[in-house]
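Lab meeting, item 3. Inverse folding demo.
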Protein backbone atom coordinates (compact mmCIF):
# COMPACT_ATOMS: atom_id res chain seq x y z
CA UNK A 1 0.00 0.00 0.00
CA UNK A 2 1.50 3.33 -1.02
CA UNK A 3 1.02 6.64 0.77
CA UNK A 4 -0.37 9.10 -1.73
CA UNK A 5 -0.49 12.85 -1.63
CA UNK A 6 -2.93 15.30 -3.17
CA UNK A 7 -0.17 17.60 -4.30
CA UNK A 8 2.85 15.58 -5.33
CA UNK A 9 4.07 12.10 -6.21
CA UNK A 10 5.23 9.90 -3.38
CA UNK A 11 7.07 6.64 -3.82
CA UNK A 12 7.35 5.57 -0.19
CA UNK A 13 5.94 2.14 0.60
CA UNK A 14 3.62 1.83 3.60
CA UNK A 15 2.84 -1.55 5.16
CA UNK A 16 -0.35 -2.50 7.01
CA UNK A 17 -0.13 -2.04 10.77
CA UNK A 18 -2.93 -2.79 13.24
CA UNK A 19 -3.94 -0.35 15.94
CA UNK A 20 -1.77 2.32 17.49
CA UNK A 21 1.98 1.97 17.52
CA UNK A 22 3.63 3.91 20.33
CA UNK A 23 2.23 6.21 23.01
CA UNK A 24 -0.97 7.51 21.37
CA UNK A 25 -4.63 7.70 22.36
CA UNK A 26 -7.91 8.75 20.77
CA UNK A 27 -9.94 11.45 22.57
CA UNK A 28 -13.14 13.39 22.03
CA UNK A 29 -16.57 12.11 21.01
CA UNK A 30 -16.65 9.03 18.85
CA UNK A 31 -17.77 9.50 15.23
CA UNK A 32 -21.24 8.20 14.44
CA UNK A 33 -20.63 4.82 12.72
CA UNK A 34 -23.92 5.05 10.84
CA UNK A 35 -23.51 8.63 9.69
CA UNK A 36 -21.88 9.93 6.54
CA UNK A 37 -19.77 12.42 8.50
CA UNK A 38 -17.53 11.97 11.50
CA UNK A 39 -15.17 14.12 13.56
CA UNK A 40 -12.46 13.02 15.93
CA UNK A 41 -9.35 14.18 17.74
CA UNK A 42 -6.13 12.19 17.76
CA UNK A 43 -3.84 13.11 20.64
CA UNK A 44 -0.28 11.83 20.32
CA UNK A 45 1.52 11.88 23.69
CA UNK A 46 5.26 11.50 24.27
CA UNK A 47 5.85 12.48 20.67
CA UNK A 48 9.64 12.68 21.00
CA UNK A 49 9.75 9.00 22.01
CA UNK A 50 8.32 7.84 18.70
CA UNK A 51 11.10 6.29 16.61
CA UNK A 52 9.09 4.40 13.99
CA UNK A 53 8.95 5.96 10.55
CA UNK A 54 5.15 5.71 10.37
CA UNK A 55 2.28 5.43 12.81
CA UNK A 56 -1.45 4.88 12.60
CA UNK A 57 -4.27 6.16 14.77
CA UNK A 58 -6.92 3.87 16.19
CA UNK A 59 -9.51 2.69 13.69
CA UNK A 60 -12.71 4.74 13.56
CA UNK A 61 -15.89 4.25 11.53
CA UNK A 62 -17.59 6.85 9.31
CA UNK A 63 -20.28 6.08 6.73
CA UNK A 64 -20.08 2.40 7.64
CA UNK A 65 -16.40 2.27 6.64
CA UNK A 66 -13.24 1.82 8.72
CA UNK A 67 -10.64 4.60 8.60
CA UNK A 68 -7.45 5.63 10.35
CA UNK A 69 -4.91 8.43 10.13
CA UNK A 70 -1.41 7.65 8.95
CA UNK A 71 1.38 9.86 10.31
CA UNK A 72 5.07 10.10 9.39
CA UNK A 73 6.48 11.96 12.43
CA UNK A 74 9.83 12.66 10.74
CA UNK A 75 8.42 13.06 7.24
CA UNK A 76 7.81 10.76 4.29
CA UNK A 77 11.07 11.37 2.41
CA UNK A 78 10.61 15.10 3.08
CA UNK A 79 11.52 17.57 5.82
CA UNK A 80 7.81 17.93 6.59
CA UNK A 81 5.29 16.21 8.82
CA UNK A 82 3.30 13.89 6.54
CA UNK A 83 -0.36 13.03 7.24
CA UNK A 84 -2.77 10.81 5.29
CA UNK A 85 -6.26 9.37 5.60
CA UNK A 86 -6.06 5.59 5.24
CA UNK A 87 -8.62 2.85 4.59
CA UNK A 88 -8.02 0.68 7.65
CA UNK A 89 -9.34 -2.57 6.20
CA UNK A 90 -8.09 -2.23 2.62
CA UNK A 91 -6.49 -5.69 2.65
CA UNK A 92 -9.84 -7.27 3.52
CA UNK A 93 -11.83 -5.60 0.73
CA UNK A 94 -13.09 -7.48 -2.34
CA UNK A 95 -11.50 -7.00 -5.74
CA UNK A 96 -12.28 -3.63 -7.39
CA UNK A 97 -13.57 -2.10 -4.13
CA UNK A 98 -13.81 1.68 -3.88
CA UNK A 99 -15.14 4.45 -1.65
CA UNK A 100 -15.34 8.21 -2.07
CA UNK A 101 -14.72 10.74 0.71
CA UNK A 102 -13.84 14.33 1.51
CA UNK A 103 -11.68 14.96 4.56
CA UNK A 104 -10.02 17.68 6.58
CA UNK A 105 -6.90 17.33 8.72
CA UNK A 106 -5.89 20.01 11.23
CA UNK A 107 -2.73 20.22 13.34
CA UNK A 108 -3.69 22.49 16.24
CA UNK A 109 -1.60 25.02 18.08
CA UNK A 110 -2.11 24.75 21.83
CA UNK A 111 -1.10 28.42 22.16
CA UNK A 112 -2.99 30.22 19.42
CA UNK A 113 -5.87 28.72 17.38
CA UNK A 114 -5.16 31.18 14.54
CA UNK A 115 -1.93 29.23 13.94
CA UNK A 116 -3.82 25.98 13.33
CA UNK A 117 -2.80 24.35 10.05
CA UNK A 118 -5.70 22.93 8.06
CA UNK A 119 -5.75 21.02 4.78
CA UNK A 120 -8.65 19.53 2.84
CA UNK A 121 -8.93 16.92 0.11
CA UNK A 122 -11.42 14.74 -1.73
CA UNK A 123 -10.39 11.35 -3.04
CA UNK A 124 -11.71 8.17 -4.66
CA UNK A 125 -10.10 5.48 -2.50
CA UNK A 126 -9.50 2.13 -4.16
CA UNK A 127 -7.18 -0.87 -4.20
CA UNK A 128 -4.39 1.10 -5.88
CA UNK A 129 -4.81 4.27 -3.80
CA UNK A 130 -6.05 3.23 -0.37
CA UNK A 131 -4.53 6.23 1.42
CA UNK A 132 -4.42 9.89 0.45
CA UNK A 133 -3.14 13.05 2.02
CA UNK A 134 -0.27 15.45 2.37
CA UNK A 135 3.43 14.61 2.22
CA UNK A 136 4.26 18.23 3.01
CA UNK A 137 1.57 18.95 5.57
CA UNK A 138 3.80 21.33 7.55
CA UNK A 139 7.52 21.87 7.90
CA UNK A 140 9.30 20.05 10.71
CA UNK A 141 10.88 23.35 11.76
CA UNK A 142 7.41 24.83 12.34
CA UNK A 143 6.26 21.67 14.08
CA UNK A 144 9.11 21.83 16.59
CA UNK A 145 9.06 25.63 17.04
CA UNK A 146 8.41 26.03 20.82
CA UNK A 147 6.75 29.44 20.27
CA UNK A 148 4.03 28.07 17.98
CA UNK A 149 2.66 25.44 20.33
CA UNK A 150 2.11 22.54 17.97
CA UNK A 151 4.18 20.29 20.22
CA UNK A 152 3.46 21.33 23.80
CA UNK A 153 4.33 19.07 26.73
CA UNK A 154 5.54 16.66 24.04
CA UNK A 155 1.96 16.27 22.77
CA UNK A 156 0.64 16.71 19.22
CA UNK A 157 -3.08 17.01 18.43
CA UNK A 158 -4.54 16.20 15.01
CA UNK A 159 -8.20 17.12 14.45
CA UNK A 160 -9.97 15.36 11.59
CA UNK A 161 -13.30 15.36 9.81
CA UNK A 162 -14.34 12.76 7.24
CA UNK A 163 -17.37 12.97 4.97
CA UNK A 164 -18.21 9.82 2.99
CA UNK A 165 -20.07 10.34 -0.29
CA UNK A 166 -22.25 7.78 -1.98
CA UNK A 167 -20.49 5.85 -4.70
CA UNK A 168 -23.15 6.44 -7.29
CA UNK A 169 -22.67 10.16 -6.75
CA UNK A 170 -19.16 9.90 -8.14
CA UNK A 171 -20.12 7.99 -11.23
CA UNK A 172 -23.53 9.36 -12.15
CA UNK A 173 -23.01 13.09 -11.63
CA UNK A 174 -22.53 14.79 -14.98
CA UNK A 175 -21.46 18.45 -14.72
CA UNK A 176 -22.34 19.18 -18.35
CA UNK A 177 -25.76 17.61 -18.02
CA UNK A 178 -26.56 19.20 -14.67
CA UNK A 179 -25.19 22.70 -15.31
CA UNK A 180 -24.28 23.06 -18.98
CA UNK A 181 -20.62 23.56 -18.04
CA UNK A 182 -17.54 21.34 -17.64
CA UNK A 183 -14.65 21.52 -15.21
CA UNK A 184 -10.86 21.45 -15.51
CA UNK A 185 -8.65 18.58 -14.42
CA UNK A 186 -6.24 19.27 -11.58
CA UNK A 187 -2.63 18.52 -12.55
CA UNK A 188 -1.66 18.13 -8.90
CA UNK A 189 -1.22 21.75 -7.79
CA UNK A 190 -3.25 23.73 -10.30
CA UNK A 191 -6.62 24.35 -8.61
CA UNK A 192 -5.62 28.03 -8.26
CA UNK A 193 -5.03 28.17 -12.03
CA UNK A 194 -8.28 26.34 -12.81
CA UNK A 195 -10.31 28.88 -10.84
CA UNK A 196 -8.73 31.77 -12.76
CA UNK A 197 -9.11 30.10 -16.18
CA UNK A 198 -12.80 29.41 -15.55
CA UNK A 199 -13.27 33.05 -14.56
CA UNK A 200 -11.57 34.32 -17.71
CA UNK A 201 -13.45 31.84 -19.92
CA UNK A 202 -16.75 33.12 -18.55
CA UNK A 203 -15.94 36.68 -19.59
CA UNK A 204 -17.29 36.13 -23.14
CA UNK A 205 -15.63 39.18 -24.71
CA UNK A 206 -12.26 37.91 -23.46
CA UNK A 207 -13.01 34.43 -24.81
CA UNK A 208 -14.00 35.81 -28.20
CA UNK A 209 -10.78 37.86 -28.27
CA UNK A 210 -8.72 34.72 -27.59
CA UNK A 211 -10.46 32.94 -30.48
CA UNK A 212 -9.65 35.86 -32.80
CA UNK A 213 -5.90 35.76 -32.09
CA UNK A 214 -4.01 34.64 -35.23
CA UNK A 215 -2.77 31.05 -35.00
CA UNK A 216 -2.09 28.47 -37.68
CA UNK A 217 -2.44 24.73 -38.23
CA UNK A 218 1.35 24.45 -38.03
CA UNK A 219 1.50 25.89 -34.48
CA UNK A 220 1.94 23.49 -31.57
CA UNK A 221 -0.23 24.12 -28.47
CA UNK A 222 2.53 23.32 -25.97
CA UNK A 223 4.73 25.94 -27.64
CA UNK A 224 2.08 28.61 -28.29
CA UNK A 225 0.15 30.28 -25.46
CA UNK A 226 -2.52 31.69 -27.83
CA UNK A 227 -3.19 28.29 -29.43
CA UNK A 228 -3.07 26.47 -26.09
CA UNK A 229 -5.63 28.89 -24.64
CA UNK A 230 -7.79 28.69 -27.79
CA UNK A 231 -7.76 24.91 -27.58
CA UNK A 232 -8.57 24.94 -23.87
CA UNK A 233 -11.46 27.38 -24.28
CA UNK A 234 -12.82 25.43 -27.25
CA UNK A 235 -12.91 22.21 -25.21
CA UNK A 236 -14.51 23.92 -22.22
CA UNK A 237 -17.19 25.35 -24.50
CA UNK A 238 -17.98 22.32 -26.65
CA UNK A 239 -16.78 19.12 -24.93
CA UNK A 240 -18.93 17.02 -22.64
CA UNK A 241 -16.28 16.06 -20.08
CA UNK A 242 -13.68 17.80 -17.93
CA UNK A 243 -10.71 19.27 -19.76
CA UNK A 244 -6.93 19.01 -19.23
CA UNK A 245 -4.75 22.14 -19.22
CA UNK A 246 -1.30 20.56 -19.64
CA UNK A 247 -0.61 22.19 -23.01
CA UNK A 248 -1.25 25.61 -21.50
CA UNK A 249 1.05 25.11 -18.53
CA UNK A 250 3.72 23.68 -20.84
CA UNK A 251 3.39 26.77 -23.06
CA UNK A 252 4.27 28.84 -19.94
CA UNK A 253 7.39 26.73 -19.49
CA UNK A 254 5.88 25.11 -16.39
CA UNK A 255 6.67 21.42 -16.78
CA UNK A 256 7.12 20.32 -13.18
CA UNK A 257 5.26 20.38 -9.87
CA UNK A 258 7.86 22.77 -8.43
CA UNK A 259 7.10 25.35 -11.11
CA UNK A 260 3.40 25.33 -10.19
CA UNK A 261 3.87 26.06 -6.51
CA UNK A 262 6.04 29.11 -7.26
CA UNK A 263 3.05 31.05 -8.60
CA UNK A 264 -0.16 32.51 -7.22
CA UNK A 265 -3.34 33.64 -8.96
CA UNK A 266 -2.33 37.28 -9.22
CA UNK A 267 1.04 36.44 -10.72
CA UNK A 268 -0.49 33.88 -13.10
CA UNK A 269 -3.07 36.45 -14.22
CA UNK A 270 -0.37 39.01 -14.95
CA UNK A 271 1.89 36.53 -16.73
CA UNK A 272 -0.98 35.33 -18.90
CA UNK A 273 -2.23 38.82 -19.76
CA UNK A 274 1.29 40.14 -20.50
CA UNK A 275 2.01 37.25 -22.86
CA UNK A 276 -1.36 37.65 -24.59
CA UNK A 277 -0.82 41.40 -24.95
CA UNK A 278 2.52 40.72 -26.60
CA UNK A 279 0.97 38.20 -29.02
CA UNK A 280 -1.89 40.58 -29.83
CA UNK A 281 0.35 43.35 -31.13
CA UNK A 282 -0.23 44.24 -34.79
CA UNK A 283 -3.33 42.01 -34.94
CA UNK A 284 -7.07 42.75 -35.10
CA UNK A 285 -7.34 42.29 -31.34
CA UNK A 286 -4.45 44.54 -30.30
CA UNK A 287 -5.28 46.54 -27.17
CA UNK A 288 -8.11 44.28 -26.00
CA UNK A 289 -6.47 43.40 -22.67
CA UNK A 290 -6.09 47.11 -21.84
CA UNK A 291 -9.64 47.80 -23.03
CA UNK A 292 -11.08 45.17 -20.68
CA UNK A 293 -8.92 45.25 -17.58
CA UNK A 294 -6.85 48.45 -17.49
CA UNK A 295 -7.61 51.51 -15.40
CA UNK A 296 -5.50 54.44 -14.24
CA UNK A 297 -4.67 56.03 -10.91
CA UNK A 298 -3.14 59.44 -10.28
CA UNK A 299 -0.63 59.78 -7.44
CA UNK A 300 -0.55 63.37 -6.21
CA UNK A 301 1.23 65.60 -3.70
CA UNK A 302 -0.48 68.97 -3.19
CA UNK A 303 0.99 71.77 -1.11
CA UNK A 304 -1.28 73.36 1.50
CA UNK A 305 0.12 76.92 1.60
CA UNK A 306 1.50 77.46 -1.91
CA UNK A 307 0.15 76.79 -5.38
CA UNK A 308 2.11 73.66 -6.23
CA UNK A 309 0.96 70.14 -7.11
CA UNK A 310 2.91 67.13 -8.38
CA UNK A 311 1.06 64.27 -10.13
CA UNK A 312 2.01 60.95 -11.67
CA UNK A 313 -0.36 58.71 -13.65
CA UNK A 314 -0.08 54.92 -13.49
CA UNK A 315 -1.91 52.08 -15.19
CA UNK A 316 -3.25 49.05 -13.30
CA UNK A 317 -4.94 45.80 -14.32
CA UNK A 318 -5.89 44.68 -10.83
CA UNK A 319 -6.13 46.34 -7.44
CA UNK A 320 -4.88 44.98 -4.13
CA UNK A 321 -7.28 45.88 -1.33
CA UNK A 322 -6.64 45.64 2.40
CA UNK A 323 -8.80 43.19 4.35
CA UNK A 324 -7.30 43.64 7.80
CA UNK A 325 -9.06 46.43 9.66
CA UNK A 326 -11.73 46.81 6.96
CA UNK A 327 -15.32 45.67 7.42
CA UNK A 328 -16.20 45.78 3.76
CA UNK A 329 -15.04 46.67 0.28
CA UNK A 330 -15.97 50.35 0.69
CA UNK A 331 -13.71 50.57 3.76
CA UNK A 332 -10.90 49.21 1.57
CA UNK A 333 -11.47 51.83 -1.13
CA UNK A 334 -11.61 54.54 1.55
CA UNK A 335 -8.27 53.33 2.84
CA UNK A 336 -6.88 53.16 -0.71
CA UNK A 337 -7.53 56.88 -1.32
CA UNK A 338 -6.78 57.97 2.25
CA UNK A 339 -4.84 61.26 2.41
CA UNK A 340 -1.48 61.41 4.17
CA UNK A 341 -0.45 64.75 5.68
CA UNK A 342 3.18 65.70 5.13
CA UNK A 343 4.08 68.15 7.87
CA UNK A 344 6.45 68.68 10.79
CA UNK A 345 9.63 66.72 10.16
CA UNK A 346 7.99 65.04 7.20
CA UNK A 347 7.41 68.15 5.07
CA UNK A 348 7.51 67.94 1.30
CA UNK A 349 10.27 69.69 -0.65
CA UNK A 350 8.41 71.43 -3.47
CA UNK A 351 10.42 72.60 -6.44
CA UNK A 352 10.94 76.38 -6.14
CA UNK A 353 9.16 76.56 -2.77
CA UNK A 354 11.38 74.63 -0.34
CA UNK A 355 9.88 72.54 2.48
CA UNK A 356 6.09 72.76 2.58
CA UNK A 357 3.13 71.24 4.37
CA UNK A 358 1.42 69.02 1.83
CA UNK A 359 -1.27 66.36 1.28
CA UNK A 360 -0.32 63.09 -0.41
CA UNK A 361 -2.73 60.57 -1.88
CA UNK A 362 -4.08 58.68 -4.86
CA UNK A 363 -7.31 58.93 -6.89
CA UNK A 364 -8.71 57.04 -9.87
CA UNK A 365 -8.59 58.74 -13.25
CA UNK A 366 -10.63 55.94 -14.82
CA UNK A 367 -11.79 52.43 -13.93
CA UNK A 368 -11.88 49.43 -16.30
CA UNK A 369 -14.99 47.65 -17.60
CA UNK A 370 -13.81 44.46 -15.85
CA UNK A 371 -12.54 45.26 -12.36
CA UNK A 372 -10.31 42.60 -10.76
CA UNK A 373 -9.84 43.01 -7.01
CA UNK A 374 -7.19 41.05 -5.13
CA UNK A 375 -8.11 40.83 -1.44
CA UNK A 376 -5.05 40.84 0.82
CA UNK A 377 -5.90 37.72 2.79
CA UNK A 378 -2.21 36.86 3.22
CA UNK A 379 0.06 39.26 5.10
CA UNK A 380 3.38 39.23 6.91
CA UNK A 381 3.01 39.42 10.69
CA UNK A 382 6.10 41.19 12.05
CA UNK A 383 5.35 40.23 15.66
CA UNK A 384 5.18 36.55 14.81
CA UNK A 385 7.84 36.84 12.10
CA UNK A 386 5.75 34.76 9.72
CA UNK A 387 3.11 34.96 7.00
CA UNK A 388 -0.47 34.67 8.26
CA UNK A 389 -3.88 34.36 6.63
CA UNK A 390 -6.44 37.04 7.48
CA UNK A 391 -9.73 35.22 8.08
CA UNK A 392 -11.60 38.28 9.36
CA UNK A 393 -15.15 38.90 8.14
CA UNK A 394 -15.05 41.10 5.04
CA UNK A 395 -18.23 41.90 3.14
CA UNK A 396 -18.62 42.69 -0.55
CA UNK A 397 -21.85 43.54 -2.38
CA UNK A 398 -23.50 42.16 -5.48
CA UNK A 399 -23.65 45.75 -6.75
CA UNK A 400 -20.60 47.98 -6.24
CA UNK A 401 -21.04 51.75 -6.74
CA UNK A 402 -17.70 53.55 -7.06
CA UNK A 403 -19.37 56.87 -7.86
CA UNK A 404 -20.71 57.25 -4.32
CA UNK A 405 -20.32 60.44 -2.27
CA UNK A 406 -19.94 62.73 -5.25
CA UNK A 407 -17.36 60.44 -6.94
CA UNK A 408 -14.92 60.73 -4.03
CA UNK A 409 -12.68 57.98 -5.40
CA UNK A 410 -12.13 59.72 -8.76
CA UNK A 411 -10.20 62.75 -9.95
CA UNK A 412 -12.02 65.94 -10.97
CA UNK A 413 -10.85 65.30 -14.55
CA UNK A 414 -12.40 61.83 -14.77
CA UNK A 415 -15.07 61.35 -17.45
CA UNK A 416 -18.48 62.18 -15.88
CA UNK A 417 -20.32 60.27 -18.62
CA UNK A 418 -18.95 56.95 -17.34
CA UNK A 419 -21.18 55.45 -14.64
CA UNK A 420 -18.97 53.34 -12.40
CA UNK A 421 -21.64 50.93 -11.17
CA UNK A 422 -20.53 47.27 -11.15
CA UNK A 423 -22.13 43.84 -10.84
CA UNK A 424 -20.31 40.96 -9.12
CA UNK A 425 -19.32 38.31 -11.68
CA UNK A 426 -16.89 35.97 -9.87
CA UNK A 427 -15.76 35.08 -6.36
CA UNK A 428 -12.48 33.15 -6.20
CA UNK A 429 -12.11 31.30 -2.92
CA UNK A 430 -9.19 29.95 -0.90
CA UNK A 431 -9.99 27.23 1.60
CA UNK A 432 -7.27 26.43 4.10
CA UNK A 433 -4.39 28.19 5.82
CA UNK A 434 -1.09 29.84 5.02
CA UNK A 435 0.63 26.49 4.51
CA UNK A 436 -1.72 25.27 1.81
CA UNK A 437 -5.29 24.70 0.84
CA UNK A 438 -7.70 24.47 -2.03
CA UNK A 439 -8.97 26.98 -4.59
CA UNK A 440 -12.27 27.17 -6.45
CA UNK A 441 -14.54 29.80 -7.98
CA UNK A 442 -18.18 30.86 -7.84
CA UNK A 443 -19.27 32.46 -11.12
CA UNK A 444 -22.53 33.79 -12.56
CA UNK A 445 -21.66 33.91 -16.27
CA UNK A 446 -24.60 36.05 -17.40
CA UNK A 447 -24.82 38.19 -14.21
CA UNK A 448 -28.20 36.58 -13.51
CA UNK A 449 -29.53 34.96 -10.34
CA UNK A 450 -27.90 31.54 -10.88
CA UNK A 451 -24.40 30.97 -9.48
CA UNK A 452 -22.13 28.02 -10.30
CA UNK A 453 -19.27 26.55 -8.34
CA UNK A 454 -16.28 25.53 -10.48
CA UNK A 455 -14.20 23.17 -8.35
CA UNK A 456 -11.65 21.52 -10.64
CA UNK A 457 -13.52 18.78 -12.57
CA UNK A 458 -16.83 19.33 -10.81
CA UNK A 459 -19.37 22.08 -11.57
CA UNK A 460 -22.50 22.55 -9.44
CA UNK A 461 -25.36 25.02 -9.19
CA UNK A 462 -25.25 27.22 -6.08
CA UNK A 463 -27.36 29.97 -4.54
CA UNK A 464 -26.28 33.50 -3.66
CA UNK A 465 -25.80 32.67 0.03
CA UNK A 466 -23.30 29.92 -0.70
CA UNK A 467 -21.50 31.84 -3.45
CA UNK A 468 -21.31 35.25 -1.77
CA UNK A 469 -22.44 35.50 1.86
CA UNK A 470 -20.63 32.35 2.98
CA UNK A 471 -17.35 33.67 1.52
CA UNK A 472 -17.14 36.77 3.73
CA UNK A 473 -15.00 34.94 6.28
CA UNK A 474 -15.16 35.60 10.02
CA UNK A 475 -16.31 33.19 12.70
CA UNK A 476 -18.06 30.00 11.75
CA UNK A 477 -21.68 30.03 12.93
CA UNK A 478 -21.42 26.39 13.95
CA UNK A 479 -17.94 25.52 15.28
CA UNK A 480 -16.98 21.87 14.92
CA UNK A 481 -17.82 19.99 18.13
CA UNK A 482 -15.15 17.67 19.44
CA UNK A 483 -12.21 19.82 18.43
CA UNK A 484 -9.76 20.53 21.22
CA UNK A 485 -10.97 24.09 21.84
CA UNK A 486 -12.38 25.87 24.91
CA UNK A 487 -16.20 26.00 24.87
CA UNK A 488 -16.13 29.77 24.29
CA UNK A 489 -13.84 29.56 21.27
CA UNK A 490 -15.35 30.16 17.84
CA UNK A 491 -13.61 28.67 14.83
CA UNK A 492 -12.66 31.13 12.10
CA UNK A 493 -13.94 30.17 8.68
CA UNK A 494 -11.03 28.84 6.66
CA UNK A 495 -12.84 29.31 3.33
CA UNK A 496 -13.19 32.90 2.13
CA UNK A 497 -12.91 35.11 -0.92
CA UNK A 498 -9.45 36.25 -1.99
CA UNK A 499 -10.26 37.64 -5.46
CA UNK A 500 -13.37 39.34 -6.85
CA UNK A 501 -14.29 40.18 -10.43
CA UNK A 502 -16.85 42.93 -11.14
CA UNK A 503 -18.27 43.95 -14.53
CA UNK A 504 -19.42 47.53 -15.14
CA UNK A 505 -23.15 47.64 -15.82
CA UNK A 506 -22.96 50.01 -18.79
CA UNK A 507 -20.44 47.66 -20.45
CA UNK A 508 -22.15 44.40 -19.50
CA UNK A 509 -23.98 43.86 -22.79
CA UNK A 510 -20.74 44.24 -24.76
CA UNK A 511 -18.70 42.08 -22.40
CA UNK A 512 -21.30 39.33 -21.88
CA UNK A 513 -21.76 38.88 -25.63
CA UNK A 514 -22.68 35.58 -27.31
CA UNK A 515 -19.77 33.46 -28.53
CA UNK A 516 -20.51 30.88 -31.23
CA UNK A 517 -18.57 28.57 -33.53
CA UNK A 518 -18.65 31.31 -36.15
CA UNK A 519 -16.19 33.26 -33.97
CA UNK A 520 -13.63 30.47 -34.13
CA UNK A 521 -11.03 29.99 -36.86
CA UNK A 522 -11.66 27.08 -39.21
CA UNK A 523 -8.23 25.54 -38.56
CA UNK A 524 -9.08 25.31 -34.84
CA UNK A 525 -12.31 23.45 -35.63
CA UNK A 526 -10.32 21.09 -37.88
CA UNK A 527 -7.60 20.57 -35.27
CA UNK A 528 -10.11 19.80 -32.52
CA UNK A 529 -12.02 17.40 -34.74
CA UNK A 530 -8.86 15.48 -35.70
CA UNK A 531 -7.77 15.36 -32.06
CA UNK A 532 -11.13 13.93 -31.05
CA UNK A 533 -11.05 11.35 -33.85
CA UNK A 534 -7.56 10.23 -32.80
CA UNK A 535 -8.69 9.95 -29.20
CA UNK A 536 -11.66 7.82 -30.25
CA UNK A 537 -9.41 5.60 -32.40
CA UNK A 538 -7.08 4.93 -29.47
CA UNK A 539 -10.03 4.20 -27.21
CA UNK A 540 -11.36 1.58 -29.64
CA UNK A 541 -7.91 0.01 -30.01
CA UNK A 542 -7.60 -0.25 -26.25
CA UNK A 543 -11.08 -1.72 -25.76
CA UNK A 544 -10.42 -4.27 -28.52
CA UNK A 545 -7.06 -5.36 -27.14
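The presenter then showed the designed sequence:
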Amino acid sequence: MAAHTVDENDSSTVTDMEGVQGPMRLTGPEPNPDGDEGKFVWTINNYSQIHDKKHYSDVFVVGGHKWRILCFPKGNNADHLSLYLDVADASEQPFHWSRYASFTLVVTSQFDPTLNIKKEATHHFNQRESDWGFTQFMSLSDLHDPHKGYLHNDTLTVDAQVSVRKQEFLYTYDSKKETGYVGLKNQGATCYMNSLLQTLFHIPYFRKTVYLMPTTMEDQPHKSIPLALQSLFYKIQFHANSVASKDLTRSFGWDTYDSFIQHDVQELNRVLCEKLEEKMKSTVVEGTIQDLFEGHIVNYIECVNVDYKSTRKEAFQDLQLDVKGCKNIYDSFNKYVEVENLDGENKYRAEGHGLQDARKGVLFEDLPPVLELQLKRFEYDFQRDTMVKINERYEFPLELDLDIDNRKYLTKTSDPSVRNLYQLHSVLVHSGGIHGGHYYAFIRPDLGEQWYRFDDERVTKEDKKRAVDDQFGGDDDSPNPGFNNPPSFKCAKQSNAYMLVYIRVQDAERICCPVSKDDIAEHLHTRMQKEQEEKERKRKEKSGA
